[in-house]
What does this fold into?
Amino acid sequence: MTSLSFIYGVSLVVFAAIFATTTSLQSRRHAALFVFGDSLYDPGNNNFINSSITHKANYPPYGETFFRFPTGRFSDGRLIPDFIAKYAHLPYWKPYLAPGQHEFINGANFASGGASAIADNDPTAISLEAQLRNFKEVVSLLKQQLGDSEAEQILMNAVYLSSIGGVDYEAFDVQYPNATESEMENYVQVVIGNILNVIKEIYALGGRKFAFQNVAPLGCTPLLKQLKNLTKTECWKDTQALARQHNQALVTAAKELEIQLPGFNFIIFDYFTTLMNLQFNPLKYGFKEADIACCGSGTYHASDCGIGDYELCRNPNEYVYFDGAHLTDKANSRLAELFWEGGMNVTAPVNMKQLLELELQPSEIKKFREEDDDGGATNDE
It folds into this structure.
């Protein structure tokens, strides 16, 4: 994959100029965090929908390490957004769909296990488009509770964090096992197009700061290795190729939005490369096992964690993967640290800490509106 530091050289200069005029995160009210995504980010929203047991993680041993009970997170503990929230001094969210009071001034987490950018790929999950609808409800509530001006300030300074696409490419591999290179490229563009449509709608509602986690090395998970009867050193090439194409296309698309949309700021966390490094150099990062999952059945313990006859490791902190496709609390912690304050080789043009600290002013909201009214870039371009 092309070095992120090379790709974002120009963007860093622009971002640094903006960032130099801002105040620190500690000197003002914290920025909210709105989260969209699939099972890598789901805090338990699927507990509240009619979905299959394989789309839920609300039973033991999920959650055993940190929360001490299953929350619906696909891990023994916390997910990357949880660590980001911790670093930003935000509380851990309840799932958006959980009943009761929510503090939406801190943001919300709409992610759903099995979610996809192409809704038809898994209609039993909360698709990215449906998550956008939920976000629009939050926007309406914030405006009712705080008034338009304060709500708009929160929305403008919030970070919109997303991790989506993996489910789409897993579905494509199953549906089109003999796909041509052209068919793969076209499919990637459809996925990216659907993501961009959602981003543009969030932008139209006031969002200006976007953080993308790119797609995982899908062909190297314990689940794919088990399904395809691969050795520990092998990865499934087709799915891996789709992930790489998606990640390159995401960079291109984000940079185009930066040009089209006034005030659009973005970062991309290279989850693909950082997880590959973790998986192929586990000892370097404090892990003993990176190919076999901690919980599950089969050659790589990659399926049915917590269901039927499964095996469970004694110490999840020694493992990169908790189940066949999801990481342990410790592995998520390692990657979240890089997302939060890593260099340009892992997150660019800046890191999450710097993006959260970027403070946009009400005057800039007015300026962007005037540019749109005068025929400037809008979400329809």
About this structure: Residues 12-28, 366-373, 375-381 have pLDDT under 50 and may be disordered.
